[in-house]
């Protein structure tokens, strides 16, 4: 029994659809996790904001919430585009993936370039804040934040040690996520092309 070219093309389209749907599910779960970390940071770690040098650090939690929401919405758009096989939705989905990938790339480069400077600035400001404002009248929020930081076991030094010890793993995960997004863009392009071919 010989398989026709049309059957092969149809099977390939179905294969791309399932691969892209699976990718979207993983992408959506990842976005939900980032959103959850951002919300958790805002709710659970808001006491520490009074210790920080600028609002830039507080803004990072809001950036996580926005980025997570964008990824969740993009994942949903991708699922709808795959199920309905709309080329315009697939195009929009591709450009959303490309935008998210570009933002992540820029954020990763900036984090790598400025990590040491931000870390040193944070340490200096924390030492200054604790020396000048701890247990001072009218500075109860800072006193409470320092006390909580100490109860948590010196979170900053633990975080720095964790990052230093696991830098290779963190980099590998970042490369894995980027590779997954590139695969998603490739699958989207292939499905877009297959749907376009089948409509003519």
UniProtKB/TrEMBL annotation:
Keyword Transmembrane helix: yes
Domain of life assignment: Eukaryota
Signal peptide: none
Topology of this chain in the membrane: Multi-pass membrane protein
GO cellular component: plasma membrane
Annotated compartments: Membrane
Keywords for the protein's UniProt record, in alphabetical order: Membrane, Transmembrane, Transmembrane helix
KW Aminoacyl-tRNA synthetase (keyword) present: no
TM segment ranges: 21-42, 62-83, 90-115, 167-192
Family to which this protein belongs: Belongs to the tetraspanin (TM4SF) family.
Record's protein name: (spotted green pufferfish) hypothetical protein
Organism annotation: Tetraodon nigroviridis
């Amino acid at each position: 029994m010989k398989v026709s070219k049309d059957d092969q093309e149809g099977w390939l389209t179905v294969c791309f659809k399932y691969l892209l749907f699976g990718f979207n599910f993983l992408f959506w779960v990842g976005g939900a996790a980032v959103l959850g970390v951002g919300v958790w940071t805002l709710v659970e770690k808001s006491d520490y904001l009074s210790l920080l040098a600028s609002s830039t650090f507080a803004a990072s939690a809001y950036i996580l919430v926005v980025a997570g929401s964008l990824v969740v919405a993009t994942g949903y758009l991708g699922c709808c585009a795959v199920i309905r096989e709309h080329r315009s939705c697939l195009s929009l989905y591709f450009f959303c993936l490309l935008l998210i990938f570009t933002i992540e790339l820029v954020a990763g480069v900036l984090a790598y370039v400025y990590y040491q400077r931000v870390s040193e600035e944070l340490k200096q400001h924390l030492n200054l804040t604790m020396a000048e404002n701890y247990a001072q009248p009218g500075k109860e929020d800072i006193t409470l934040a320092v006390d909580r930081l100490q109860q948590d076991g010196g979170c900053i030094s633990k975080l720095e040690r964790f990052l230093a010890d696991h830098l290779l793993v963190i980099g590998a995960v970042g490369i894995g996520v980027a590779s997954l997004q590139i695969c998603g863009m490739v699958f989207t392009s292939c499905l877009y092309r297959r749907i376009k071919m089948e409509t003519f």
